[in-house]
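Hi all, long-time lurker, first post. I run a small reading group and we've been trying to get comfortable going from sequence to structure in the token notation. Rather than ask abstract questions, I figured I'd post a concrete chain and ask someone more experienced to write out its structure so we can walk through it together at our next meeting. Sequence below, copied exactly:
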Amino acid sequence: MYNFEYVRPSSLDEAAKALASNGEATLLAGGQTLLPTLRQRLAQPSALVDLSGISELSGISLKGNTLEIGATTSHAAVAASKDVNKAIPALAHLASTIGDNQVRHRGTIGGSIANNDPAADYPAAVLGLGATVVTNKRKIAADDFFEGLFTTALDEGEIVTSVRFPVPKKAGYAKFEQRASRFALVGVFAAQTANGVRVAVTGAGENGVFRSSELESALEGSFSADAVSGVSIPANGLMGDLHGSAQYRAALIKAVAEDAVAAA
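-- Answer (accepted) --
Happy to help. Here is the structure in token form:
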């Protein structure tokens, strides 16, 4: 690692000031991506601003038809939460499939979506449910938040504070994972919401997580696995790498979508 200053603020205001006073500072949430990057000397921040000491950023609450999860809430806490399992079981299931036990107890929902890894699980839930990302400055709709590989709408110095999920009528998540990393080779989150069907795909897009208009159209008529069987997923715009070609991922999207809808 390169040398850096370590700051552990106890409030959101302190964290924002620490970022503003040092243009090369980086936020530390769970550290599941950042710390390996630092160890490999692929990043050289002048300071790490650790969010783990800010109590207001952690926790889960269910109020009416809105489930709100604090940014530093761990994957394990989401998976075990009675409120999450009651309101959106698919979200609890998704959290339970992330990484291994150690990752689930250290990784956070805010860190995951802010990093926006193209094979991460949470972006599919945020986009698939039409969630709202709350920051220390504003509220950002899911459709506007994810902008490409490792890129989001967050401005410099902006901190994710929570994610607000509308409770859907039905929702399901399934993924075909890379065995070594447990990242999604293809993951599909399908939801029947008050505003229609939303289907988000992670692990497959050249530009990261995306909504599938083909699957949404098919499921609007009948939210069932059978409705997916006649869908043709185009390979253009999909990722091809050593784990699978774009054509392979296209076929996987359809198969995994059937599992996601069946799970719902």
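A couple of things your group might point at:
The radius of gyration is 18 Å.
The chain has a mean pLDDT of 95.
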